[in-house]
Structure to design on (589 residues):
């Protein structure tokens, strides 16, 4: 926002232009446009949106669902909060287009409990769209296109951002992830095909239909087309939400936000990786430094071990406890970091912790445990001199 | 629990469950609504909800223990949740934490003896550009400084004097009364 570059999401545009176009298109035409745009999921995983919608569209079931994943819990991510505050109509427009494309009649916005204060606003927008014929029965007078949306609240569980855990939660269960396959596009909410997409993905999809696939695909590298919302926080002069083209280097982004002094940047939140200064030429794209939006800047004075401990405390608490590598692994890694902080960690023990982290990446059931060791492993790799052989300041306390 | 209280609670749960169609998939909305009215979900309430949804009470208990924002134990009129995740940590959340403990005379995880305040840690509130962030019931305060803690608690005490029951929060929020102007609330930085 306000960067002088072309904005997709925050541009001045005719309201609901995408939806008006979509109701005149066939389902295949909508999906083809989204496919050709190269749009990939903005929640972090980067799955091609057109393919996801196509799978859901092909599934044979009279009941299908569209779910907007607004369980924005990744530390350092707050772009969906801004999008839902400022562009709620665009998000709902994208959901309605998705419903048209896959043949769904019902949808949910799964809003994290921490954003309860946004609920009234979202429900008011849904009501207003219903009155304007943009939601409900017979949308835009098309005869037969019905789509209703309800807001459902989360209740403080990070893991519910994982799509199968989110569906479990919607069904009234503990938010424990399911095995995949089957994927939600085949067996989702109450066993019916369900397209779960991130808030930003829906908003972008609406723009793809409005502007055409080509206008979107023009921006950014071929593997990561379009713009991306970055939530920037930490040691920089101008924290906030930025819409920038994909493929920008970390150094370019840091210039934009006034964080040139940084010694490291956490890309992708607690589950992302820590990129040291020497690698600031890396690009923010799905095939390089990939992020769901979270960019946390660490200035020269930051203690990287304290950063790693903060992330591991987060995962130790937020693991759903279902599978052993994640439940136990995060706990052991946290213990290890406490030992490093106390200055009582041998190289052999550090190697063991690294091996444990790699096992967790391979053996955990869902994305939480598969990615929770990332930050620790990258900090160990890049800041070994900072974290090994620290003065044993806490040794007295330990004994 | 008094028989009359129990009957009243049973009626309330019956109404809420019926409004949600008595379906299992409505368990979370039912529990959240019940909690808004009662402040917490007692063992008796769990059994009643289970009966209306035709599931085992332990299923309800299991769900309540999973979600951080569902209270299976009685909490204070105001639940204060301070964000401890990375950027709030980098912005000196520890000082805010110490001030909260000193002002309230309790540690994190505890409730004041008068039942007004519960103090807890929480994970990322999504206010990383405006930390430290503090959630008071459903309200989020941003850029909270240690010096500002007293004022937030005083605002809560003023609300308590007029509205001692948590069930009045919904009406208060609608009227804008739950937004004491002590910190910029969720102002977007762009």
């Amino acid at each position: 926002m306000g960067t002088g570059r072309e904005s997709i999401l925050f541009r001045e545009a005719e309201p609901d232009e995408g939806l008006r176009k979509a109701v005149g298109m066939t389902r295949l035409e909508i999906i083809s446009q989204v496919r050709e745009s190269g749009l990939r999921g903005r929640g972090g995983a980067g799955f091609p949106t057109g393919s996801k919608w196509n799978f859901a569209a092909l599934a044979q079931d009279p009941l299908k669902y569209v779910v907007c994943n607004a369980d924005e819990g990744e530390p350092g991510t707050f772009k969906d909060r801004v999008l839902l505050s400022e562009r709620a109509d665009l998000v709902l427009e994208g959901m309605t287009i998705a419903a048209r494309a896959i043949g769904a009649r019902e949808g949910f916005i799964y809003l994290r409990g921490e954003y309860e204060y946004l609920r009234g606003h979202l429900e008011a927008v849904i009501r207003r769209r219903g009155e304007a014929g943009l939601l409900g029965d017979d949308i835009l007078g098309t005869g037969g296109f019905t789509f209703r949306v309800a807001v459902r609240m989360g209740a403080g569980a990070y893991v519910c951002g994982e799509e199968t855990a989110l569906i479990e939660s919607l069904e009234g269960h503990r938010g424990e992830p399911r095995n995949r396959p089957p994927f939600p596009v085949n067996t989702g909410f109450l066993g019916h095909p369900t397209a779960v997409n991130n808030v930003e993905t829906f908003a972008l999809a609406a723009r793809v239909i409005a502007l055409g696939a080509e206008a979107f695909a023009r921006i950014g590298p071929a593997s990561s087309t379009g713009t991306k919302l970055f939530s920037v926080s930490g040691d920089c002069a101008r924290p906030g939400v930025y819409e920038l083209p994909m493929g920008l280097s970390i150094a370019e982004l840091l210039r934009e936000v006034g964080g040139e002094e940084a010694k490291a940047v956490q890309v992708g939140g607690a589950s992302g990786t820590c990129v040291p200064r020497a690698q600031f030429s890396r690009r923010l794209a799905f095939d390089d430094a990939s992020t769901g939006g979270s960019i946390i800047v660490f200035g020269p004075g930051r203690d990287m071990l304290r950063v790693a401990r903060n992330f591991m405390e987060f995962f130790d608490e937020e693991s759903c406890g279902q599978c052993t590598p994640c439940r136990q692994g995060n706990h052991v890694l946290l213990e290890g970091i406490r030992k490093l902080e106390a200055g009582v960690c041998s190289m052999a023990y550090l190697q063991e912790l690294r091996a444990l982290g790699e096992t967790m990446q391979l053996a955990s059931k869902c994305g939480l445990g598969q990615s929770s060791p990332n930050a620790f492993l990258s900090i160990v790799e890049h800041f070994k001199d900072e974290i090994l052989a620290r003065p044993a300041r806490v040794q007295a306390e330990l004994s | 629990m008094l028989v009359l209280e129990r009957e009243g609670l049973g009626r309330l749960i019956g109404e809420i469950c019926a409004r949600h169609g008595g379906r299992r998939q409505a368990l979370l909305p039912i529990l959240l609504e019940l909690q808004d009215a009662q402040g917490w979900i007692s063992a008796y309430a769990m059994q009643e909800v289970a009966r209306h949804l035709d599931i085992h009470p332990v299923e309800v208990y299991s769900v309540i223990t999973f979600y951080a924002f569902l209270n299976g134990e009685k909490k204070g009129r105001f639940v204060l949740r301070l964000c401890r995740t990375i950027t709030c940590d980098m912005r000196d959340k520890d000082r805010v934490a110490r001030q909260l403990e000193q002002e309230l005379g309790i540690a994190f995880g505890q409730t004041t003896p008068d039942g007004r305040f519960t103090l807890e840690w929480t994970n990322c509130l999504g206010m990383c550009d405006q930390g430290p962030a503090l959630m008071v019931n459903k309200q989020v305060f941003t850029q909270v400084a240690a010096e500002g803690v007293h004022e937030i608690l005083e605002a809560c005490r003023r609300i308590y004097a007029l509205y001692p029951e948590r069930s009045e929060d919904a009406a208060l929020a609608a009227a804008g009364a739950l937004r004491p102007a002590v910190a910029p609330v969720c102002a977007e930085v762009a």
